[in-house]
């Protein structure tokens, strides 16, 4: 009897080991997959001329580099216009803040796309970015390079035009970066893509106070799955958060039928347009959001659009 029990236990242990190995292999596989489809700029549907224009690639040839740093960023990825290496111009900057488990190396095509419009685009490998500490470490690194005569980025950073965008947990990280870090005041504008809502962020121990946001802010989400509408950013909570943003320039919209994992890239046309307007003074890009007939307000792919611009 004892031998039978021992034999059964051995079988159970083997099964558990095999299942554990399969689960670990599955998560390893997922961790190695890109977070955006290849050539996403050719696949994302657009609903307006401005959205389509800025979803396409810009005119700049792009290069990139990766540097190893300490925790929490681990590695910093920088994409930039190739011409930066051979001129005396300065370039605006956009810092990306990662969603849970979505390190920057999973969406390098997004970085390349934005840099093709003339931006230094920077991110890191932190997969738990909600507190904003990796954002602070990453922007500090770039600012240090801007003062380092041996760096290709020496005096190439337009420190008056730095923006930030965060996805999911990174939305909370973005809000913390612009309200509660050493370099909070350096950010000129911010974008939150499906940010973890305030109560959720509080429960997950990376709280933020959206009422402290005073810079121009774009808040975008989807409504294509329960993860998005029932957990991460329910519409009623999103609307309340939008109302509590203190900035006199703010925009909110939901892209129809888009799942949580899609909002990282399906809004990229308007993400690029927003940064082109606020960081490069591109008036054509600003027409997507402001003026008598903002494109976003009539774009049939979006709903619940709210725009306040009192500047």
**What string, H for helix and E for strand, traces the elements in order?**
HHEEEHEHEHEHEHHEHHHE
Task: Return residue spans where pLDDT drops below 50 for at least 5 consecutive residues.
Answer: 22-31
Strand content: 15-25%
Measured on Cα atoms, how large is the radius of gyration?
A: 21 Å
* Helicity range: 25-40%
The chain-level structural class is alpha/beta
Strands ordered across the widest β-sheet: 1-2-4-3-5-6-7-8-9
Described by the principal axes of the CA atoms, the overall outline is globular
For the largest beta-sheet, the strand count, sense and barrel status come to: 9 strands, mixed
What's the number of helices? 11
Average of pLDDT: 92
How far is it from the N-terminal to the C-terminal residue, by CA?
A: 82 Å
Number of strands: 9
Short characterization:
37% of the residues lie in helices and 21% in strands.
Describe the structure.
It is a single chain. The protein has helices spanning 2-31, 49-55, 108-115, 133-146, 169-179, 198-203, 226-232, 235-244, 268-280, 283-286, 295-298, and strands at residues 62-68, 75-81, 91-97, 120-124, 157-167, 187-193, 217-222, 249-255, 302-309. The model is unreliable at 22-31 (pLDDT under 50). Helix 2 crosses helix 9 (268-280). It has 11 helices and 9 strands. 48% of the residues are buried. It is globular, with a radius of gyration of 21 Å. By secondary structure, the chain is an alpha/beta fold. It has a 9-stranded mixed β-sheet, sandwiched between helices.
């Amino acid at each position: 009897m004892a031998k039978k029990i021992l034999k059964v236990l051995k079988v159970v242990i083997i099964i558990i080991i095999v299942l554990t190995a399969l689960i670990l292999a599955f998560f390893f596989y997922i961790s190695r997959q890109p977070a955006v489809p290849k050539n996403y700029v050719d696949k994302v549907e657009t609903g307006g001329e401005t959205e389509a224009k800025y979803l396409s690639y810009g005119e700049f040839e792009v290069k990139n580099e990766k540097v190893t740093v300490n925790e929490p960023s681990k590695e910093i990825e920088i994409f930039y216009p190739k011409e930066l290496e051979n001129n005396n111009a300065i370039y605006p900057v956009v810092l990306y803040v990662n969603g849970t488990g979505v390190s920057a190396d999973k969406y390098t095509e997004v970085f390349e796309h934005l840099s093709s419009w003339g931006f230094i685009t920077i991110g890191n490998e932190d997969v738990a970015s909600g507190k904003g500490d990796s954002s602070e470490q990453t922007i500090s690194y770039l600012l240090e390079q801007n003062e380092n005569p041996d760096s290709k980025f020496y005096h190439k950073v337009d420190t008056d035009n730095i923006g930030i965008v965060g996805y999911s947990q990174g939305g909370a990280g973005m809000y913390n970066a612009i309200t509660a870090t050493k370099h909070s005041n350096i950010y000129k504008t911010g974008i939150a893509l499906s940010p973890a809502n305030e109560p959720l962020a509080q429960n997950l121990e990376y709280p933020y106070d959206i009422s402290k946001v005073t810079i121009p802010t774009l808040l975008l989400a989807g409504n294509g799955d329960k993860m998005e509408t029932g957990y991460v950013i329910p519409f009623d909570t999103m609307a309340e958060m939008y109302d509590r943003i203190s900035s006199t320039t703010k925009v909110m919209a939901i892209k129809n039928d888009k799942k949580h994992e899609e909002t990282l890239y399906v809004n990229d046309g308007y993400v690029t347009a927003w940064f082109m307007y606020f960081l490069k003074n591109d008036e054509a890009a600003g027409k997507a959001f402001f003026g008598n007939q903002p494109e976003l307000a009539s774009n049939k792919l979006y709903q619940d659009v709210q725009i306040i611009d009192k500047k």
